[in-house]
Amino acid sequence: MPNLRSLVMVLGFLTLSDRVLGEQVEIYLIDPLDEDRGYCIDIKGHKSKAKIQRGLQAHTCYSYQGKIAVDQAFDSFLFGKNILYLSVFDVCVRAESMIPKASLQLERCREGEELQKFGWDDKGRIYAIANPRLCITVAQGEARKGGGGTPIHLIRNLSLEYCGDLLRLTQQWGFRKVSY
């Protein structure tokens, strides 16, 4: 029976692991702005060839193609731990700093790293735990054209800005899994 006991312990450990429990979801802007397919938080670069050292942007959601792209796939289980984790790349979102206009970078996850902690408020805003007055915000103005898609994909910058009702359309986020 020792082998059975070991097997039960291993299976129990696996069921508790973040990667087993986590569901891949995309984080999308509630208001589609000028993009009918919507904007999602996205790693700069193209899908599996994304360049984590270049940070994040708001990009046309790929879910219209029937699945979530790897460079837009977040582990939903870790939202409850205030972590925005992209499991395919094994990186966490990190604020460049705790001041307005700070960019959003990616780096290996580090336990207790305050710049990697983000919460969701009851209005759907994603805010920095270290400074809850700062929310992840999509740039206003005209979008840039991306390098692919039909119609062509659109891109906007992402940054931390003061949370507020005036920026609601560019700060209110949701997440979803795609099941077609």
Structural account:
This protein has 180 residues and is α+β, with helices and mostly antiparallel strands. The protein has one domain (23-176): Trefoil (Acidic Fibroblast Growth Factor, subunit A), CATH 2.80.10. 13% of the residues lie in helices and 32% in strands. It is built from 3 helices and 14 strands. It has a 4-stranded antiparallel beta sheet, with no helix packed on it. The radius of gyration is 17 Å and the shape is globular. The termini are far apart.
Short account of what is shown:
The protein has three helices and 14 strands. It is an alpha+beta fold.
Please compute the radius of gyration using only Cα atoms.
Answer: 17 Å
Order of SSEs:
HHEEEEEEEEEEEEEHE
CATH class: Mainly Beta
Which architecture per CATH?
A: Trefoil
Helix content: 10-25%
- Give the helix/strand class: alpha+beta
Q: If strands are numbered along the chain, what order do they take across the biggest sheet?
A: 2-3-12-11
Largest sheet: 4 strands, antiparallel
Note the overall shape.
globular
Number of helices: 3
> Which ranges are low-confidence, i.e. pLDDT below 50, for 5 or more consecutive residues?
3-20
Strand fraction equals: 25-35%
Fold-level CATH name: Trefoil (Acidic Fibroblast Growth Factor, subunit A)
Number of domains: 1
> Kindly, what is the distance between the CA atoms of the first and last residues, rounded to a whole number of angstroms?
43 Å
Estimate the mean pLDDT confidence: 89
